[in-house]
Structures are given as structure tokens and as C-alpha cells.
Specification:
Two copies of one chain form a homodimer. Chain A is built from twelve helices and twelve strands. By secondary structure, the first copy, chain A, is α/β, with parallel strands linked by helices. Chain A has two domains: 1-100 and 273-356, Isopropylmalate Dehydrogenase (3-Layer(aba) Sandwich), CATH 3.40.718; 104-263, Isopropylmalate Dehydrogenase (3-Layer(aba) Sandwich). In chain A, the strands form two sheets. In chain A, strands 2-1-3-12-11-4-5-10-8-9 form a ten-stranded mixed β-sheet, sandwiched between helices. In chain A, a hairpin with a 2-residue loop joins β6 and β7 (154-164). In chain A, α1 packs across α10 (295-309), α1 packs parallel to α12 (345-355) and α8 (222-231) runs parallel beside α9 (243-256). Chain A is globular and about 60 Å long. The model of chain A has no long low-confidence stretch (mean pLDDT 96). At the A-B interface, β6, β7, α6, α7 and α8 of A face β6, β7, α6, α7 and α8 of B. β7 (154-164) of chain A pairs antiparallel with β7 of chain B. Bound molecules: 3-isopropylmalic acid (2 copies). One 3-isopropylmalic acid sits between chains A (90, 93, 247) and B (193-194, 223). Chains A, B: Belongs to the isocitrate and isopropylmalate dehydrogenases family. LeuB type 1 subfamily.
Chain lengths: 356, 356
């Protein structure tokens, strides 16, 4: 099979550790399925600030643009938290999304049966929960003009939230497409009773909906959605929403599964290119101790196989291996009930590779 | 004692029913404590659209401005959902907040022991949860310029989020003051890693914090807060945040208590004037059936007594009466485990009055 290029961005904190295990899994699929991957490392985030003076060096961007997919660990940490805007890891994140045209962030919130007890929700409420949040990623208030000015009452700050029809159309179409491959239910989340961008959003959703007569559509106000996720998580299939609302709701959805150390995400643009990363952060407090959980990053490889390469069989092998290792009772510290029996990052990676 | 003027806005859906019971409680305190209340009804929301052609008639505004406090039921319903902006109940809500200068929305999220099982959270997680969300109510993206325009890629919509220093200062001071009367912990929620308004917000919080050396302050990013509310609700005391974030987080916080039919809220400005209302909506689906739960509105009267009139003893009597009636096992349909034993709105109101 043809050689696939993967840009590997380990990043900060536990990023390098968890990416290391994911790369072992990747290698194993070469052996099992005859795939060929060419991986190249890029600097990004805090470490890029330290070594190159910018969170997103041009060479990293070029590396990503020349690749078929990007595997990202995690970025950020207290070391860079008080930097000026241009020298913050988050600025790199926003930059890479925009530069690579990654307008869509896909966040599956799946419940791992064997981790159900880790959720703060009652098991009977969580039962059957399996949803995906599709978040618009390159528009809205994140990317609109921001500035300070002198107002009538002293200094003021301004953020601007802008959406055009085309930006809404492409993300909404993608969400409908995803819903068609799943439960055929789509919840579009907005604040159309207050915001003009939300009214535009809802108009576009309603205009596109007839193209997908099989998909059952509901409009949910964002405040109500924050409640309904808690009240009836299993009733959601696909949720589509704008950037800021998606940031908040996807984190809420991830947390309620109880499996946040296990969740992966994909950021997609036009075509098959994608950036894949765990939902969890760089966890600077436990970095370097070899105790972090590599599963979300390993599952990000499976997601990459499905969404970018169409390697569904191999993806299934990875997902099954993870499940088997968990079912056999192996746990890293973050998900262990009995912390004294917790295994390390490398041991978890080895077990999963062995189970493939 | 002097006569207190209360503007009563029953509104739509179950609004009139639940307000009716709250007024019985109010009357009872006249009898028990010798208070004198002068109540006058105003049209607002959907019913005002139908009868006066606007959600917020000038005479209602004048009535409120001439009163010491406002008691509001609920507004809105599907009947008006597709109206143009000027003819929507929500527009009236935003208008009344702005016109009355109600810059602060106080939403206690309390867990009623006897209703703990109604929450979807595990009881041991909920244990000890007792928090207040202080939401900025007259600024931010709700009130900034909104418009459509032709952009390079076709039609686009714009919302503007603006905060000035003074707007942030007054709400943050109030939140610190409230924290001083409670657990002395304040979580300030923003998205300072992305938004300019959030950076201004955080600067102001940090500038004011030294005035309250006893209050333990934490800054929490909004996405993280949506997670932490689920993970460790009992660790929060007072949460202060801007308008849009407050809308989402206060609803999430309310829902996780399992007691949403029981929660009241206050909207305050400078001075002692306030508008009091239940957190729940107008529930058009059950309106007119006499089965709605009046407790949140009754507790809104208690909140009015505490925050506007300083009638703490009477407030306690109301709150205790509610507790006693619940402890005796009486439930309206929304909170009844055995729905066949549910009592009606009026019966619940009568029981609470009798228990006072
Ligand atoms: C770090 C931050 C800019 C980022 C976001 O808000 O998009 C993060 O929270 C995420 O969800 O990926
Ligand atoms: C109806 C709507 C405009 C309102 C808001 O978002 O402020 C409501 O959700 C609330 O929280 O009071």
C-alpha cells in the first residue's frame, strides 16, 4: 500500500509520553496489515515557544501541510500561562486550526462499560450514552476582531462573533452526514432567541434539513442543552454547534461519560486530511512520571485510520485491543479504583500492542 | 411597618398559577408579621404581545420603576417563538433587565435533601452542594451590536461582545461581597486564553481581589467549569461570570441539583430594588392544568424578603414551611416519585401557607 505521511506533534507535558505509545500501536499495524507510515516530528506549543520563540513555527506548519494527517499530543502548561498572547500555546492551537482549514472538530463522547463507575452520573442515566459533538472550529467569537478601546465609561474590551452562510453550511452538512451513518438524530444548538449569528445558524440548518429527510432534527438552545446533557445524555446522537458553545458542551459531554482520559477527537477540513488528538490536556502535574494514560491518544490513531485513511479493519483491531486490556482489569492511575494496582504509561501501551 | 410596593408580573404559561400561590404566601406574612404589601399586576411577555402589541409595555415598565420589587412568574411559549425579534417575549426580558438596570443575576443552586434522588448525579457527588452563580446580566454579547451584512463569502451575521471596566467591577464586587457572607470562596469564570473581554474581566478580578483578602479566589476557564461542575459540584461556593457563560453554567448548575422546579433567582441593580423569579420556564405543555409546582416562585418571595426588604425572619418561616411540607412527603407531579400521589398547585400552596 502507498506510504502515508503523518506529522507527529508531541507537544508539552504528558504529550510526548502518550504519543510515544500511540506510535508503537501505529508501528504494530504496519506489521499486521502491511501499511507504511512515514512519521516526522514537529515542534508546537510551549516547547516551540521555548525553542523557536513562537508556538507555531513555520516549519511545523509546512510539515503538517505536507502530511496526510497530524497526530497531536497536548500543548500548554503553567510555564507559558502568563505570556503575552503571541507567545501562548493556545495561540498556536488557534493558528494551526485556521491555517490548516480545520473547520470541524469531532468529539465522540462514548461510555466505556468498564469505566461507567468513574462517571459522577448515575449508571442508569448514562446507560446507552453514545454521542458525538460536531463543533465549528475556525469561526465565531474565537476568530473575530478583538480589541480594547476607550468608551464613554472608560476602557472597554470587544470581541466580535461572525459567521457567514458558507461557514455554517459546511459544518452543518458534515453533521447531517455523520448523523446518517449513526442514529439519524441531529441536535443543532444555538441561542437563536438572542444572537444574530444563531439566527443565521438556524436558518441555514432549516434550509439544509430537507436534503436529509431521514434525519430527525431538533433545535436546542445552548442553556437548555447544558441541562439536557445532564438529564438525558443517552437521547443525543449527533450535536452540532458553533465554536464557543461547542467548546463548553463538548467538555461537559466528555466529562459526563466518566471516561475523559479515554476520549479522542478529530479536527477535519475539506477532503480527508485531519488532525487527531486526545481530548485531555497536557497534565503538567503528572508529566514525566510515566503514569499518564495513553489510551485516548492510541484511540486517536484509530480515529485517524477511520476518518482519514479508511483503514476500518485496523481501527477495529486497535479499539478491540483497548477494550480487551481494560476488560482484563488493567488500569492507569487516572482510571484505577485501586490506585496501588495502577500500571504505567509504557506498560499500558505494551499491553495494547500485545493484544492487537 | 411601611407599605412595600410589589409589581406582580404573572406572565405566560404556568406563570399565573405559580404566582397565585406565591401571593397567598405573601398575604400570610402580612398576617403573621404585620407587613403591608401593595401589589399591582402588569402585563409582560407573550400576553403583553397579544394584548398590547409589545412584550414590554411602557406602563409595565413604569409600574416596575415605581415599585420596591418585582415578582415575575415566567414568560414565553411556542405561540410567540416564530415572531420577529421585537415581538418576542425574550426581547421583553432583555428590555426589562436593561431598563431597570438589573446588572446582576443571582441563582442559588441548592440541593433539597429530600429531592436528592431526583438528580441524575450520584448522591455522594452531590453531597454538600450549595453554590450561587452570580451572572452579569446587562452586558456582553446579549446587548452588543448585532447585524447582518454582505461579506466576501456572502451574507454574514455579527454579534458583538463588549464589557467595560466599570461593568465588570460592579458585578465582581458584588460576588466578592456575597462570598464574604458564605463560604468565602469565589470562582471567576472566563475564557481569558481566547477572548479579549475575558482578559479584561480577569484583570479587573485580580485588581479587586486584594480588597477581599479573606476570599479564596480561583480563575476557571468556562469549558473547564462546565466539567468541574459535574465532577466536584460541592467544591464551589460562589461563581461569578459574564452574561452568556452565566446563562449556560447557571442552567447546568441548576439541573445538577435535581431540584430545578424548586430554584428561585434574583436580578439586582444598585440599591435594594430587585426582580425575583423562579428559574424554571413557562412550561406551556402543562399550563392551565393546575399541576405545576409553585415552590420556586414561593421561594422567590423568600429571596425578595432577604435581599430587598431585609425581612430575614419571615424568609426563614417561608423556607422552613416549604421544607416541612416536603419532608411530610407532599409532592407536585414534577418531583413526585409516585406520580399517582402527586398533589396540585393550589394544594401545595395551601399546605405551605398552613405550615407557616
Ligand atoms: C486551549 C483552547 C484555546 C481550546 C479551545 O477553546 O478551543 C481548548 O479548550 C479546546 O477545546 O481545544
Ligand atoms: C430567555 C432568555 C433570553 C434568557 C437568557 O438567556 O438570559 C433565559 O435563558 C434566562 O436565563 O433568563
Amino acid at each position: 500500500s502507498e506510504v502515508k505521511k503523518i506529522a507527529v506533534i508531541a507537544g508539552d507535558g504528558i504529550g510526548p509520553e502518550v504519543v510515544g505509545e500511540a506510535l508503537k500501536v501505529l508501528k504494530k499495524t504496519e506489521e499486521l496489515f502491511g501499511y507504511q507510515f512515514e512519521t516526522e516530528n514537529g515542534l508546537f506549543g510551549g516547547i516551540a515557544i521555548d525553542e523557536k520563540g513562537t508556538p507555531l513555527p513555520q516549519e511545523t506548519l509546512d510539515l503538517c501541510k505536507g502530511a496526510d494527517a497530524v497526530l497531536l499530543g497536548a500543548v500548554g502548561g503553567p510555564k507559558w500561562d502568563n505570556n503575552s498572547k503571541e507567545l501562548r500555546p493556545e495561540t498556536g492551537l488557534l493558528g494551526i486550526r485556521k491555517e490548516l482549514g480545520l473547520f470541524s472538530n469531532i468529539r465522540p463522547a462514548t461510555v466505556f462499560d468498564c469505566l461507567k463507575e468513574a462517571s459522577t452520573l448515575k449508571p442508569e442515566v448514562l446507560e446507552g450514552t453514545d454521542l458525538i459533538v460536531v463543533r465549528e472550529l475556525t469561526g465565531g467569537i474565537y476568530f473575530g476582531e478583538k480589541f480594547r478601546r476607550e468608551g464613554a465609561n472608560g476602557e472597554e474590551a470587544v470581541d466580535t462573533c461572525v459567521y457567514n452562510v458558507q461557514e455554517v453550511e459546511r459544518i452543518v452538512r458534515q453533521a447531517f452526514d455523520i448523523a446518517m451513518t449513526r442514529g439519524k438524530r441531529l441536535a443543532s444548538v444555538d441561542k437563536a432567541n438572542v444572537l444574530e449569528t444563531s439566527r443565521l445558524w438556524r436558518e441555514v440548518v432549516n434550509r439544509i434539513a430537507p436534503e436529509y429527510p431521514e434525519v430527525e432534527l431538533e433545535h436546542v438552545l445552548v442553556d437548555n442543552c447544558a441541562m439536557q446533557l445532564l438529564r438525558r445524555p443517552s437521547s443525543f446522537d449527533v450535536i452540532v454547534t458553533e465554536n464557543m458553545f461547542g467548546d463548553i458542551l463538548s467538555d461537559e459531554a466528555a466529562m459526563l461519560t466518566g471516561s475523559i482520559g479515554m476520549l479522542s477527537s478529530a479536527s477535519l477540513g475539506e477532503g480527508s486530511f485531519g488532525l487527531y488528538e486526545p481530548v485531555h490536556g497536557s497534565a503538567p502535574d503528572i508529566a514525566g512520571q510515566g503514569i499518564s494514560n495513553p489510551i485516548a491518544t492510541i484511540l486517536s490513531v484509530a480515529l485517524m485510520f477511520r476518518l482519514t485513511f479508511g483503514y476500518h479493519e485496523a481501527a477495529q483491531v486497535i479499539e478491540d485491543a483497548v477494550k480487551n486490556v481494560l476488560d482484563a482489569g488493567h488500569r492507569t492511575g487516572d482510571i484505577a479504583v485501586d490506585k496501588s494496582k495502577a500500571i504505567g504509561t509504557i506498560e499500558m501501551g505494551d499491553l495494547i500492542v500485545a493484544a492487537m
